[in-house]
Structure formats: C-alpha cells, structure tokens
Design goal:
Blueprint (H helix, E strand, L loop, with lengths): L19 E4 L2 H4 L16 E5 L12 H9 L14 H10 L3 H4 L10 H5 L7 H7 L3 E6 L21 E5 L9 E6 L7 E5 L7 H16 L6 E6 L38 H6 L6 H24 L1
Parallel strand pairs: 1-2, 2-7, 3-4, 3-7
Antiparallel strand pairs: 4-5, 5-6
Helix pairs in contact: 7-9
Length: 303
C-alpha cells in the first residue's frame, strides 16, 4: 500500500498527533484494529516499544519512560508473558497466539527461530493492521535467527510498509547491519553501521522512529511503528557517551544474591553453592549491572 500523498511518506488533512504514545503489550495492539469510528475516521496511531531482557528495576534510570508512558498512560499490573523465552514470546506478540498454537518452541533449531516462524508471516499484527488501512513500520530486532547470512534476496516479511530489521549476528550495538526498505515495494538494502558514536544501535533506531513519526504526524493514514530494541541484552555495551555514567552508583542489594545461609534451598543447589562468590566476581557482576543501566539511558532518550 503506497500512500497517495505529497509528503515523503504519508500526508493528508491534519489529524491528532500521536494518540497511542507507546504500548508495551502486544495484545493491546489488537484494540487498534477496527478502531475507526462510524464516520470512517482513521484509527489511532500506535507505537509499540519493546526492550530485550529488561528488568523492572531498570526503569529507575528511565525518567522519560516513567513520565510519558507510565505517568500519562495505563499500567497493567497483572500482565503476563505467554512464554518465558525470547523467540516463542516474540512469535506470540506478532501473532496473538500461544506457543502451543504457533509452534515456535525455541530460539533456534528445527522447532524454533525465524525459519520456524516464517510460515506465520502472512497472518500477523502487521498484516492485520495493514489490511485495516494502517501504514506499518518495523525498526530493530525481529525474531531470533532473522536473515542469518544474510540470504539473497533480502527478506522483508509481509505486512510491513517500511522495514529496518536487525539481522541476526554477534554484534548488536556497533558494527552491525540492518535490512532496510524505506518505501513500500522498494528493493531492500543491507546497510552496515560501524563503530562511530552515531552508529550506536539504540540511537539509530530511535532517530529513525522519531523521523518517521515527525513526518507522518498530521497525515490521513494512521500508522503503527514497532520500535524493538536489543538493549539491554548482552553484550553489555552502553553508548560511548553514557559509559561510566553510573560507575559510582549504588546498586540495590538483593537478599537472594550470594546468600550466606542456603540451608532452606534444595539439595542440588546446596551442593553447587558450597562457596560464596569471590570478591572479584562480585565486582564484575556489579559492573555488568551498571552497564545494563547505562544502556537503558539511550532507550529512555529515544522515548
């Protein structure tokens, strides 16, 4: 669906700016489908922001997210992840199905990963939203194993008007590649981002999302943007400008961390934990936790 407009992407009569600022649960996206009024008004815009392996406690360094989404939006106090593993959970977000229905049971192998998910790409939230008149944009991580190689031709899943998909490779935050399709129907290109500060992945994805939203605000065609970050997944690499920002910050002390008295724990655990963690290892763990928090500062800036 190529938008008929004079704007670079979408244009038309003025309409309300971003109505759904950000949604953190895929199931909520279904509410936007068919959200048009009886008078045929366009549905609300949707931005779906997803982070990877983020702990709830890491929201402490995200004031924008807490204020703009948490403070101005709705908090789901009883929200549940359908499956506690990356690729099956992403497949559920994209299809609205439980793992036992979509069949993606792991991050790779014959029962998991992108190859297992591909047969579902003709029936996802993207195809449903596009069928309902939405202009759809994906930025960032998709499902595990996406475009390893990468294959030729470069794959762009059905239902996406624009696509900036992170290919599966060891490097996540610098020296990585995106498969990019800037306009509907265009040939996809493999774009490499290096090791300069402006190449940091969270910044690149956030900037692309903001550029699109700025260009599309006021358009007649509603849009859905998936902004799916890798952060704070390992390797723990903050943006260069935020490295050591929290080097002196105190970390919360969890009662379960390096617990001295484990007599109430199962026998197998007591056998494995005869010695407490050495001081050096504790220091390394603390440094990793701080780097994770520093990574989330960049995500919060994008919000």
């Amino acid at each position: 669906m190529r938008p008929l407009a004079t704007h670079s992407r979408i244009a038309g009569r003025p309409r309300a700016a971003l109505a759904a600022a950000a949604l953190l649960l895929a199931g909520v996206l279904a509410l936007a489908i068919g959200a048009r009024s009886a008078e045929g008004e366009p549905g609300d815009n949707v931005v779906f922001i997803l982070t990877d392996d983020q702990a709830l406690s890491e929201l402490a360094v995200m004031p924008n997210t807490r204020a703009l989404i948490g403070g101005a939006g709705v908090t789901f106090s009883r929200a549940y992840v359908p499956y506690p593993l990356c690729c099956p959970s992403r497949a559920s977000m994209l299809t609205g199905e439980y793992m036992h229905n979509h069949g993606v049971r792991g991050n790779g192998g014959p029962l998991g990963g992108w190859t297992r998910f591909q047969p579902h790409e003709d029936d996802t939230i993207a195809t449903a939203m596009q069928d309902d008149g939405y202009y759809t944009v994906h930025l960032g991580k998709y499902v595990n194993g996406y475009a390893i190689g990468p294959p030729n031709p470069l794959p762009v899943p059905e239902g996406w008007s624009e696509w900036y998909g992170k290919i599966s490779e060891p490097d996540l935050y610098q020296n990585y590649s995106l498969i990019e399709m800037e306009f509907p129907g265009d040939d996809a290109e493999l774009v490499f981002y290096g090791d300069q500060e402006q190449d940091y992945q969270s910044d690149v994805l956030g900037d692309k999302a903001v550029d699109f939203i700025d260009s599309a605000t006021g358009a007649e065609t509603p849009f859905m943007v998936n902004l799916w970050f890798n952060a704070p997944h390992s390797p723990y690499e903050p943006a260069p400008r935020h490295l050591f920002d929290l080097s002196g910050a105190a970390l919360p002390k969890l009662q379960a961390f390096d617990e001295k008295d484990i007599s109430d724990k199962p026998k197998w655990l007591r056998k494995q934990a005869r010695k407490r963690l050495p001081k050096v290892l504790k220091g390394e763990i603390a440094a990793e936790r701080r780097r994770r928090l520093e990574m989330m500062i960049s995500v919060d800036e994008a919000v």
